[in-house]
Amino acid sequence: MLLALCLLGGCAPAPPLTQDEAVKLDDLLQLVKERLELSAALALERWHARRDADDDGGYETELIRAAVNRAAAYALPPEVIQEFLQAQFDAARLVHEGLQAQWHKDPKSAGKLAPASADPARAIAALTEPMLAALREAYPILRRAGGRTELGRRADVIFAGVTGGNAPAARALTPLWLLAR
Questions:
Q1: Nearest to 88 by CA among 64, 66, 52
Q2: Which DSSP symbol is given to 12?
Q3: What is the pLDDT of residue 107?
Q4: Alpha-carbon distance 84 to 142, whole Å?
């Protein structure tokens, strides 16, 4: 029976992304990558200030709560926003922990990382709205048949050599993998 459905077109591969869909998915992935790269600059700032990677003064919780409260404005389920933003903070923490462990072993290596922004915390915060808007645009693309394949294909290219390595990137993308079909 399953073979018959496949032969009748029920198992046909998903159509490729349109140019517009590819741009929307790439925009989201580029913003996630940019946030990870800014996380390295924030780690450096905190290293020089001798602040812990988790020292955010409750900012993380408040930002997530505010975004979840505006879920209807983003036309996204609140749990999607919650999980996506939490993953971004978790990924940033992995970047911080990895770099700070490296810098504890070799303090001079901290000077090799050039700050990406005069105020990386502010630059990261400024990415929240564009990231959620990009997530809104990419959401139907991820949810359609073939979304997981396209996510993997595009993420492999965009995240090649990302700051912090594979573990932070994988954590940042986890909610997208869970959404994708």
A1: 64
A2: P
A3: 86
A4: 13
- Angstrom CA distances, 165 to 40, 59, 60, 118, stand at 11, 25, 22, 23
Q: Write the pLDDT tens digit of every residue in 117-156.
A: 678 888 999 999 999 999 999 999 999 999 999 999 999 9
Alpha-carbon torsion, ordered 34, 76, 58, 42, to 10 deg: 0
Could you report how far apart the first and last alpha carbons of the chain are, in Å?
Answer: 23
Residue 58's Cβ-count burial label (10 Å; 0-12, 13-18, 19+) is exposed
126 to each of 120, 121, 176, how far by Cα in Å?
10, 9, 21
Cα 110 from Cα 50, distance rounded (Å): 12
Residue 62 clears pLDDT 80, i.e. is over it:
yes
Which has the closest alpha carbon to 120: 40, 23, 64, 52? 40
